[in-house]
Amino acid sequence: QLARQMYDRLPTTMTLRWQNFPGNNSFLCDGRLIVSRDWGTVGCSLFLIGLVSIVFYIFEAPFLWDTLSPAIPLLLAYVWLLMLVFLFRTTFTDPGIVPRAPKSESLALYGDQALMPRTKEVMVDGAPMQVKFCFTCRLYRPPRCSHCSVCDNCVENFDHHCPWVGNCVGRRNYRFFYGFIMSASLLSLAFFVASIFHIVHISHTENKSAGEAIGATPGSMVVAGLCFVVLWMVGGMACYHTALVAAGITTNENIKGARTDHPAAHSHGTFAANVFGYLCGPRSPSLLQLREVCDLESGDARDYGSTSTDEPLTRGTV
Fold this sequence. Notes:
By secondary structure, the protein is of the alpha+beta class. It has helices at residues 2-8, 42-59, 61-67, 71-92, 103-110, 174-205, 210-216, 218-247, 251-256, 271-280; strands at 14-16, 25-28, 33-36, 97-98, 119-124, 127-134, 139-140, 146-148, 153-155, 160-162, 167-169, 293-295.
């Protein structure tokens, strides 16, 4: 409340950086949360998650509670909550956006962008690597950085833009994305197995045929069918990303066939080291200072290329 009162007393030329951010992003909670502008599709993900979960806990959870153990539906509920936490962390976390260079800085460093070489060679851990110049962000991208055409930002360790989570997946939120698809896969598998077990249990204990058992618990078949489709898609994605983590590369690098003669540029050397580095290592701080106050007239806000007088010199395909 005090911060809001102080902000309201600022001159009209003063603003917060997130209010002049140039990328295709939306902000919530006064700039504390950043998402892509297509984040409304997260509602579809939540709808599917809610639909499968409601049907499961209506038809299957009471059976598991009485037949096997109350711990099973409680454990699955914990995994379900964990999955939602991973989803929201993926959606509302800065994926690793690299701030755009101000026009004055770009001119001082590079001169006329029309004459800029598209790529240049840099040394990474003693090995040469090529980096590309981004005409939108007016800078040479760091290694493994790529420009997202949806969010219109350069993102460190860019993996892909995922509409189902409403955000780019990059250096700062990849671990949350991986946790989301893994927990969703495990939950779908557990729901599927529990539903099939319910049908088989009825068939054996009540001496019924498979069709009669399904008729006795139609909700089990609904859950099994939904989970089979979800497991086919999300489970395949989880296996794919597990292979990427093991190799130490991103989806973007895999699709584009990005390679390097220096393995350490991508991989930490072993599977365990890659898993720790990608999923358990320290998370880098955000490069965005979205809640800093800046003066439009002094040009501070244009550090993010955010005003009409600071448009990129050349809009190119990145």
